[in-house]
SusD/RagB family nutrient-binding outer membrane lipoprotein
Amino acid sequence: MKKINLLMCMLLCLVFATSCTEDFTEMNTDQSGFLADEVSAKFFLTDLQFRLYSPDRFPYWRAHLIHADRYAGHFTFGHNSSWWSDELCYTYNAGYTDATFGWLNNYLGNILNFQEFVEEGGDLENEYMYAMSLIIKGLYYQMYTDTFGMVPYTEAGVDGILTPVFDEQSVIYQGIIADLDQAMATIGDAETTGVGVNDAGENDIYCGGDLQQWKRMANTLKLRIAMRALNAPGENFATAAINQALSAPLLDDANGSVVMTKDFVISQWAAAAYGDIWHNFGGGSDWTVGATLINMLQDNNDPRLSSYAKPAVGGSFIFVNNAETPDPNYQDRLDFVVATLDEAGADYTLATAGDETTIEVAPGQFIGQPTRTNGDTYPYVRYDMFSTPSDRVIQEKGSQVDAYPEIVLTSAESYFLQAEAAVRGISGGDAQALFATGIKEAMKLWNIPEGDADTYIATEAAADITSGTTDERLEKIAHQRWLASYTDGFEAWAVVRDTGYPAELAAGVSDQIIYGLGNLNGDYPQRMRYGSGAQDNPNFSAVQGIQGDDLQATTLWFAQ
């Protein structure tokens, strides 16, 4: 029988993506080559998928944890055991930025390589896997453009074009929607990518080979992008796209969210997790959970609190103003610590004897650390005083466990977006019913019992949008989207920029005694700066005149 040796080398390079763990389907290889009926593009799909949401440790640390998760206000550095103050990344750092830009900029090549195999006339032609690739491209480009703004899109990867133009966000958004429409039309009523070896099945670690779930995901992504573009300067396509999306199947409670199960056996240099950072470097790399998140959960009796975070260790904390090198702002910073405990409703005692102040914090309490504290406040922010991520989030590698999943796109967001459309009068849906279902779907991701979710919805004002002004109702929806994006910092950050909520994050900081104002002068970060290499493209010079200066404070099109 005919053998396909051309693909042998590449398939062997990808064996780890399909055979090195129990989560990625095993692939047995014939040492003399692959028979025609043994080769499928599905063996390339797994690698493409997990590298977008679980890249190796280098970008996972720098892109996710150092930037997006902290811009989102979910995680904080700056405690007295940390290597850094919490001003890190609010002050531009070329090395960390380059890591993020390099990862996202280079990921496109993975998509294009896969598309070459599965496109019409390709060696492994499969129209349904090509549709998958268009949807993955949409997921990727939405993250990429919402991080940096204008990026190469229409000419990216086009044969013969080595220096593609940087496209405006409005162009990229409309291009993504067009690709999603094409993908959904291709899928139609199909349920699988083929039969036998051509059925993506378990090699598809997003949807398990279910093409109708891919279609629902694509339509939900279309709705997200259109809602984000709504009312941006010059926008003329969002309302039509929103209505189209609302009239077609979306991610729902019957079919659930699209999440990627974390693999805790595969090497951190292939697919990383938070635990690879937490456990490999000692206390210096540890982080705490942000006060905005903890307080919002705690103040509203949210049952996700203990799933998201662990209680603070607590203990006795002594503060003394060093007589040899006194801090002129000692009392201000000490008062800040006390105010933080008060805002958290913490159980503590404070005693002052001479020049020494002792704060006793009872163990077992959820206390969040304020965001963006500066280097001078650093010694006052005691690690054991604050909550850290739950064990599910910082799970160590070594065995398959029920750890947090990587969020691709959730049914919760689908319902929140539908509720927002109803509140804005775009659709006639029951906003409260949609909102409540979204909350229940968000809690399912963290295994919250249905009864606890029902109680929260029935008793907490945070879960009620039946009354209030339009802005007040939209604020509650934005808060739930932000909460549901925990561990998906890129999306949570985008929610804050787009909606302005949570307001205390979007407002930035101004007290330079306590906070690190960074290069932003205290403003909330609106984007990341381009990494090294972007300037080598002669078309880069046009970006400033359209988008603005290459600064973190430059507001992107969707957030204007």
In short: Confidence is low (pLDDT under 50) at residues 1-32. The longest helix spans residues 94-118.
